[in-house]
What we know:
11 helices, Arc Repressor Mutant, subunit A, 41% helix, alpha/beta, D-Maltodextrin-Binding Protein, domain 2, two-stranded antiparallel ribbon
Amino acid sequence: MSNILRSIDHIPAFHAVMTHGSLSAAARALRIAQPTVRRHIEALEADLNTQLFSRAANGLTPTALAWTLLPMAQSVLEEAAALHRTASAESGALAGVVRLTSSRIVATHVLPTALKQITAEAPQIKFEIAATDVAENLARRAADIAVRFTQPTQHALIAVALPAVEVGLFAAPGTPPVADVEALSKAPFVADDRENLILPALTAAGLPTLRNIVVRCDDPLAQIAHLQAGMGVGLCQVKLADRLGLVRVLPEVRHDMPAWLVVHEDQSQIARIRFVFDALKSALPLLM
């Protein structure tokens, strides 16, 4: 067998420096002293018998090898976290930690209600939530269960199609009414910024060019907050908009967004994960 690392304790420091950009930022993220981060980096380099960073007065610069090793380090940390979660309780018990990942909108506006229902039935289950609009890698155990709006393609995943999530145009009560698509073209509108997905999608759906963009932001939670504040018209999930008290604009404009609930087939054999998966399968169609 080839040599293996004597310890994985130094990998978090390497990963933190790579992802946060400096020793000081890594130290803040890990909540340890900056000299400790430096010692961990040096120990890992000694263990690997290679140089991961070039040293300069202005800090550390990753080598090409460091960038090659980064996804491997990420995988090691994710698998280690999964090992800890799996060991948090007996596999047959409705107790222990379940890690969920979903979009930020779902994590903020949908999961709280669903998880409250689950903990009422299984109070010994605890949750970790990765709220991100970037798909986490379930194959590497970055999470146990995922709510996704793109169909997963990784092997060894169980994906259950949820009812499509209807998205429409909404505004706050009291916003000047929009009678037709021509009026929409002149109405104040909240759109995305650098992603530039919303306006091309509306144009592709046959709507006229929107000429009065009052807010541009790539954060969907911020977009919804500006709709609630009465800044203009924008996109929102229909069931969420109803809960938030938003008013629908041009109901004939709609988009059905496919959704999936996903779990790794190995994780699905753990009782608490299967319980949460089945509970979400029932709860999410009512909330999204």
